[in-house]
Amino acid sequence: MASISEVRPSPIAGTWYSSDPDKLAHQIDGFIQQATAPSIKGKIFGLVVPHAGHRYSGATAGIAYRTILGNSYPLVMILSPSHHYYPAQLLSSAHHFYTTPLGNLPVHQEALKLLQKEMRHAGVEIKLVEEDEEHSVEIQLPFLQQALEGEFSILPLMMLDQGQEAVLLLSKALLNVYDRYHPLVIASSDLSHFHSLRTANELDGNMLKMIADFSPDGVLQAEKDGSGSACGAGPIAVALGLAKLAGASGVKVLQHSTSADVTGDSSSVVGYGSAVITF
Length: 279
Known about the structure:
CATH class: Alpha Beta
Helix content: 40-55%
Mean pLDDT: 97
Number of strands: 12
Distance between the termini: 48 Å
CATH superfamily: LigB-like
Number of helices: 10
């Protein structure tokens, strides 16, 4: 049996974002530096950020990453949906590193093992996958590499089960990880998909209101009843639920945009939003 590569190869460099390291760094710096620095009160717990190709959602992500520019974290926890099917509720990487054109980032093995232990107690196994095609974790990495100071590790988590019970279990299990490592928490999610601009603005506005209200249940309910939409409703709800357990106290929505801002096509758009969670 072939051994698993230490480094996860990137399936999206050169398509979702530039494969040229100098060009990529320049583009990311542009997204961050061109954003008006938002006024943030309190210490930052985490971010909600979109995960489309940088051309489409980079500016909306950039304003969120502007809030952590120059900060240092030993660990960044990235919560995302899985856009690809696996026979599992929750996934992480079987590789020890993710790679981007800006360099390799280690997967924090101790944090992963601790979470595996916590989830086993809840009856859930985390499936470790090899050479996954998931973009919603990787798309965040160049932003983190350009925004943060110093070295850091990542804990990638991809949710297939985004139901309320799965959200509650993961939120509680992650608290021990949070208390030990005090990571930056990233919830990776786009908003509505392939509606008219008018409908997208309504759906996205409702979802962003639930996020601004600091309501994990509201996020899940809006996705369930169709009043709002987010492909990563589960990851957003986990981030908010974990934030509440960790003592965070507020959420500020930073920006909303759609693909129409780039393409000019308002007939079928994808929505993007960013927010910051604070103590």
